[in-house]
Design a protein that fits this description.
heterodimer, A: alpha/beta, Rossmann fold, N-(1-d-carboxylethyl)-l-norvaline Dehydrogenase, domain 2, 2 domains, 9 strands, 8% strand, disordered C terminus, B: alpha/beta, 6-stranded mixed beta sheet, 19 strands, 28% helix, 24% strand
């Protein structure tokens, strides 16, 4: 199979990368009607599969689960999840031939095998849905021409998709129709109805394309969302221990600090986060982050270039074929880091203390968010897509670190994200070696304001505020957050 | 000997209000106190200060008996207990209790108690005896998430009685307990006292352990010692007043049949929670639903409110439509208003009073939409009716428990629903608050609203109830009119 994106002429590449529209609530006034009475079969019953199915059924739709024969015979977890919640469960052969909509919610890595098994069984004119475009775009999977191919991708873990729905809300969702597979022109109507069934329409929906979703999603998760949070956390912890800060305190500051700090992004963007610092601290964080942006920019660009050219997915698929040799090695290494092995100490750290004593992370987050956004936009991704895949998701991922450190983050995210995260981390740590030599406990571990009288040069402060507030991620972020005013910030913990 | 507790000059402010004002209190060895009085008078805050869970200006001196073998500590059992899953999250939505996958993320009762016992160096046999006495043993292998509110309370009481701290403070000890469990608890408390524990009970209930020998209430921020429980002041009586116009009309029924269940059964693995339930409710009927803790009441109600995933495998009709025939849970919730202790636990803590009530129009937990003028006027009117105007913009969680419950009652009736489900609505409230609440329910019932009310004590029920259904171990053991049950 050939990489789909690379088969396209440049004009079509740009065209598909540029699909990006924040949808108005009125576009969903038809509710779930397009799917009423249709037979929906979900393939896979893990966290996304089960929770999306529960929502769709509670929205009045007909949902069953197709599992592999072995999963049913051996009563695996997926079978237990589905049957104990009273869903109809059957084999591919039993359920797929009559399905109107087949929703593939298996892990990315299994997509090729799953689709090869599913597709021959699907009836003429049926619809196939993905929640990630990797299989179509990077692996170049060709779907039978009579089948409609759509994507509905809730931007939250499965448990959130469910808990927000039952509260009467939803999670932000991205939808798309694959232009090569929309023979009847019904793709968008079906994707919208599916999105309503999961509650996503209440929380903001972005109309995207398979190409734009993959190229921005990969970039975001490798760099700011997972890669940089991992690198920043490990370097910060090691620095504190090296300089004699109590290891328990350092562990707690890093584990929970990233969540507290990025929480500020949700409401006020990067400038809102920087505003949590005193004036002197803000100037320092600004300077550090400018320096970090200069150092890391070539690495961010390399990741984006490799994603665009298909080089990233090629090497990752090689690793898949090689029994995940690199992935498993890097995963083990991450588990052995001192940060991962040191339990958080039994000390109380106040909310503001996380900002005052962990200024370095504020600098990392600002640098990472802005760099990821800038690099994506330079590569032809629209600002709205770039916003979702950088700033918007950062607090959601940070929350997983607060739960159980890097182990939890890498467990929750997809295999693809985990692989990309380690790849970035491996390259970023040596890149920052000289920078870290200059770092002391005044910016990580102790209160930066201590012993300073708080005075700053007014002109410098005004100039910094202006740079922060006029960054394009702030401009598009303000617009998107405003469009979501009727909704509430998604709770992540 | 020094007194066990000596408090002098205690001051506590909450926002603009002086809650405790130069309060003094001495607790001698051998004294067991009842602390009663009005909601919001500062009882819980005072208890938390003694347990050093809250700080305040003033002096607190605790002189434990050094010769005693009991742990030199103050244990405070909160009126409500918020549990967390293994990952330390406490934000599940209450409906998740019914979804199979989620339950596995919390520990079992037994594991929790073993952990506690190990931590506190206690013999596990002792805990087993206490569980037996409180009729709790059957739940040993249940997940914490699966426990009903009354069962959670029991677990906290088992822990406290097992530890036997030198000073044990229990806020609303009888919350969620049925009549038999209450009596047993009193016996166990007396045994603990005999072993050397001293008690402070915070409540306004009448049946107390025999060992209670001192009485007090907080008045104007100061402790007032009383000679007997009867002297505890009764809060003011509510003046009956007219309901807002929009609640003085009969709800718009779409069907005369509210619900009809045919052999409804629910099981989790080997555990049968409901067994062959047959039940019919017609428009305008007022039902009392009773049964011991864990008999399946909450599960039954979750079916009616569209919350239970096993609804789809059962044969029943809601508001004239067969369940699982293509309706959404939002279609069902439109007809009903519900309030329960679990719902209250999981309610959005970041909502204001006004937003909480307004969210009832959309059956959402928290408000996510702009209200049109006609609807927001109704919210204002109802807030006025419930005398909550001064709290309109306060966070719900900042109000005393009794007021929070009133807010949630207002939320459930804002749309004048066909069916009002009140699942232990007065749990955690004292007798005066309960009487006030039930009087409101009676006023609301006049215009033809259908009511299902879950309550334990015959003395504390609204007078409008006319029919009764009783569950035991998941089965219906009685369906009758209330007149019949009085004769029996």
């Amino acid at each position: 199979m050939a990489n789909y994106f690379n088969t396209l002429p440049l004009r079509e590449q740009l065209n598909q990368l540029g699909v990006c529209e924040f949808m108005d609530n009125s576009e969903f006034s038809d509710g779930v009607n397009a799917l009423k009475g249709k037979k929906i079969v979900i393939v896979g019953c893990g966290a996304q599969g089960l929770n999306q199915g529960l929502n769709l059924r509670d929205s009045g739709l007909d949902v069953s689960y197709a599992l592999r024969k072995e999963a049913i015979e051996q009563k695996r977890d997926s079978w237990k999840n589905a049957t104990s919640n009273n869903f109809n469960v059957g084999t591919y052969e039993e359920l797929l031939p009559t399905a109107d909509l087949v929703i593939n919610l298996t892990p990315d890595k299994q997509h090729t095998a799953v689709i090869n098994a599913v597709m021959p069984l699907m009836k003429q004119g049926a619809t196939l849905s993905y929640s990630h475009g990797f299989n179509i775009v990077e692996e170049g999977m060709q779907i039978r021409k009579d089948i409609t191919v759509i994507m509905v991708a809730p931007k939250s873990p499965g448990s959130e998709v469910r808990s927000e729905y039952v509260r009467g809300f939803g999670v932000p969702t991205l939808i798309a129709v694959h232009p090569e597979n929309d023979p009847e022109g019904k793709g968008l109507a079906w994707a919208k109805a599916y999105c309503v069934g999961t509650g996503g329409h209440r929380a903001g929906v972005l109309l995207s394309s398979f190409v734009a979703e993959v190229k921005s999603d990969l970039m975001g998760e490798q760099t700011i969302l997972c890669g940089l949070l991992q690198t920043g956390s490990i370097l910060s912890f090691d620095k504190m221990v090296e300089k004699g800060i109590d290891a328990g305190y350092a562990s707690k500051l890093v584990q929970y600090g990233v969540e507290v700090i990025t929480e500020a992004l949700k409401h006020g963007g990067v400038s809102g986060m920087m505003d949590r610092l005193s004036n002197v601290a803000k100037v320092k964080a600004f300077e550090l982050s400018e320096e970090l942006k200069d150092i890391m920019r070539p690495l961010f660009q390399k990741h984006q270039d490799d994603i665009m050219s298909g080089e990233f997915s090629r090497t990752m698929m090689e690793d898949w074929a090689n029994g995940d040799a690199n992935l498993l090695k890097w995963r083990a290494e991450t588990g052995e880091t001192a940060f991962e092995k040191t339990p958080a100490g039994d000390v109380k750290i106040g909310e503001q203390e996380y900002f005052d004593n962990y200024l370095l992370m504020v600098a990392f987050v600002r640098a990472g968010v802005e760099l990821a956004f800038e690099t994506m936009v330079e590569a032809g991704i629209k600002p709205e897509s770039a916003y979702y895949e950088s700033l918007h998701e950062t607090p959601l991922i940070a929350n997983t670190i607060a739960r159980k450190k890097l182990f939890e983050m890498n467990r929750v995210i997809s295999d693809t994200a985990e692989y990309g995260c380690y790849l970035f981390d491996q390259a970023c740590k040596p890149l920052l070696a000289d920078f870290m030599k200059k770092i002391d406990t005044d910016v990580v571990g102790k209160n930066y304001n201590e012993g300073k009288d708080g005075s700053v040069d007014n002109q410098q402060l005004v100039a910094i505020n202006e740079v922060l507030r006029n960054h394009p991620v702030e401009i598009v972020g303000t617009k998107l957050r405003k469009a979501m005013t009727a909704m509430k910030a998604i709770k992540t913990a | 000997m020094e007194p066990l507790v000596r408090i002098t000059g205690l001051n506590l402010r909450y926002q603009q209000k002086q809650v405790l004002n130069n309060l003094g209190w001495t607790i001698q060895h051998g004294e067991n106190w009842l602390l009663g009085g009005a909601s919001g008078s500062g009882k819980t805050s005072l208890a938390k200060i003694i347990a050093e869970m809250q700080s305040a200006a003033g002096e607190l001196k605790i002189d434990f008996n050094k010769k005693s073998r009991l742990p030199a500590e103050v244990l405070f059992v909160e009126s409500w207990y918020r549990f967390k899953n293994i990952e330390g999250l406490s934000n599940f939505y209450y409906q998740q209790r019914y979804t199979s996958l989620q339950a596995n993320e919390t520990v079992t009762v037994k594991a929790e108690l073993q952990h506690y016992g190990k931590d506190k160096n206690l013999e596990f046999e002792e805990a087993e005896k206490l569980m037996e006495a409180l009729n709790f043993s059957a739940l040993k292998n249940s997940q914490l998430l699966e426990l009903s509110s009354g069962e959670h309370k029991k677990l906290q009481l088992v822990k406290a009685l097992w530890l036997k701290p030198q000073l044990l403070i229990i806020d609303q000890p009888y919350t969620g307990l049925d009549a038999l469990s209450r009596r047993k608890l009193n016996g166990l408390l007396d045994e603990a006292v005999a072993a050397g524990v001293q008690l402070i009970l915070i409540c306004n209930d009448k049946e107390l352990p025999a060992s209670i020998n001192c009485y007090a209430e907080i008045e104007n921020g100061q402790l007032k010692r009383l000679d007997s429980q009867d002297e505890i002041s009764v809060s003011y009586q509510r003046q009956s007043k007219d309901l807002p116009d929009f609640l003085q009309v009969r709800p718009g029924y779409t069907s005369d049949e509210i619900l009809r269940m045919i052999d409804v059964s629910i099981r989790y693995g080997d555990k049968q929670v409901l067994k062959n339930i047959n039940w019919e409710v017609r428009a305008g009927e007022k039902w009392l639903l009773q049964g011991p803790n864990g008999s399946g009441k909450s599960t039954l109600l979750s079916l009616i409110n569209g919350d239970h995933p096993q609804s789809y495998a059962n044969n029943f009709y809601l508001f004239g439509n067969k369940r699982g025939s293509g309706e959404s849970i939002w279609d069902i919730k439109q007809h009903t208003g519900i309030i329960s202790p679990e719902f209250h636990w999981y309610f959005d803590a970041t909502s204001t009073v006004w937003q909480s009530i307004a969210s009832g129009f959309y059956d959402s937990v928290g408000l996510y939409r702009q209200l049109p003028f006609s609807k927001s006027a109704k919210v204002d009117e109802l807030i006025e009716f419930f005398e909550l105007t001064e709290h309109k913009n306060d966070l719900l969680s900042a109000l005393p428990l009794g007021k929070q419950r009133l807010v949630l009652l207002a939320r459930t009736i804002i749309k004048n629903p066909e069916l009002l489900i009140l699942d232990e609505p007065c749990q955690g409230l004292d007798q005066q608050q309960t009487a006030y609440f039930n009087q409101l329910v009676d006023e609301l019932s006049v215009n033809g609203m259908t009511i299902i009310y879950v309550g334990h004590f015959a003395s504390a029920l609204p007078s409008c109830l006319e029919k009764r259904i009783e569950l035991n171990e998941g089965e219906v053991v009685a369906i009758e009119t209330l007149a019949e049950s009085c004769l029996a």
